[in-house]
Amino acid sequence: MMNAKLSAITGSVLLLSAPLQGFSATTHPDSCINRDWKKEIPLPVHPNREMVDLYHKTWEIAAGRVRKGPEGLPASPYMDENCYEDQIWIWDTCFMVLFAKYAPRSFPGVESLDNLYKPVHEKAVTPLKVHLVDNPPLFAWVEKEYFDFTGDKNRLDDLLNKKQYLQKHFNWFAQAKSGERFACSPQNIHLNSIGDDGFTWTGGASGMDNTPRGRDAGGYRNVLWVDAISQQALSARCIADMEQALGNADEAKKWNIEYEALKNKINHLYWDKKEGFYYDVAISDKQPCRVKTIASYWPLLAQVASREQAQSMVRHLMNPEEFGGSYPTPSLARSDKDYHHQTGDYWRGGIWLPTTYMTIKAIEKYGYHEEADAIAEKVISQQLAAYRNIEPHTIWECYSPSGNAPSTEHGRRVRPEFCGWSALGPISLFIENVLGFKEVSAARKEVRWRLKKNKGRHGIKNLRFGGIATDIVFDGKGTVSVRSNASYSLIINDSNYSVKKGDTEIQL
Description:
- It is a single chain.
- By secondary structure, the protein is an alpha+beta fold.
- It has three domains: 1-82 and 306-435, no CATH class; 132-302, Alpha/alpha barrel (Glycosyltransferase); 436-508, Maltose phosphorylase, domain 3 (Sandwich), CATH 2.60.420.
- The protein contains 14 helices and 24 strands.
- The strands form nine sheets. The chain has a five-stranded antiparallel beta sheet, with no helix packed on it.
- Helix 2 runs antiparallel to helix 3 (109-121), helix 2 (90-100) runs parallel beside helix 4 and helix 12 runs antiparallel to helix 13.
């Protein structure tokens, strides 16, 4: 029998000290992962052995989701989200890019996006259907994150100058009309543009299937959805930044103007001064529809909030009666009458890694790093405890807001082996928030590390970005040892250190 101990990280989550056991990922017959993928992934150094083990287990599950797919795919292999055999999803695929970027030669994150771009914007006939073309428009955001990490200007040039997929998707989304049909999708479009004020949407199209949004206004189609317009603002901002990176100053200016217009609209129409919160808005009277969901943090990721607005949003986020507590970032505030305490009932309180990741990155834009890191550690610890205690031992589609267990959908336990976007916790949030490697930029040849001296020996090895491969490890006392194949800037807690090719020792 294993001895158990309480984790000092989570307070309320029980962790066991023995190595993780019982792992058995199902490998799809079409799986075609590069056999050397384990040599490419970063290697975390951290005193919590179980979190490190979970990191590796998660990569193993994700490796089973790299598939060659049926003949005729624009991009093969691709990342499969582990949902439907014959369909692919826009927002699942976008979120998978955000962990696949850490091992891009083996995990085809951005390549998978081509299976969406080509059928939607070139009308290419492909064997996989696009489930809900009007899913959240996150392409520009994840392409920018990938570019920052890899510095791949060739892909950027192809996207923006040649194919113009990102501009096309932005413009299509801005003018979408409900009932529109795409040959590549089994569903009609539910998104509907309402002039300059925003969009009506539905639970499924927005990705938040059974959310009670619009409840007090008579339903989904009677409200303007705050996440839809905020994701458009995010896209415009990211396109502007990428155009600037390519030296296209005039195009960057044009997209910045688009962004500013959306920013002003969001703050004028969707900000509720009474509660200090971004809400959906009733179309009839333009009043807030006060159903608090995690979707209201998209405006912060798009950086449309002022410092004062962000501060108010963070207060709601950390409030245990709303989105805080031992199990943070439920999809519906605990104070809402439709909140499902026991399991979260999917999007009525379930904790989802994509929206958790978004929220963490959103508040970091405003300097709330301690809060972001605390949320990340709690959520990963919940995933770890669920992995340990629930059979099968795996990573789940979403989690309960009240315990170390998966959520439910229509009364049934949610999908297992969901790596898939749930890998964002044990991989991306572990690297970025637990280990503290907040920004890694090949474009700027820069690593920004929020080092936590009280955490003991920790760091990362085999971190690859652009053409750079590096090890960065703090000894737990006062020395950071770095090994690199090329020079770059290492910013540790706002102090800039020059790393040279070879070995570098930094005394803090």
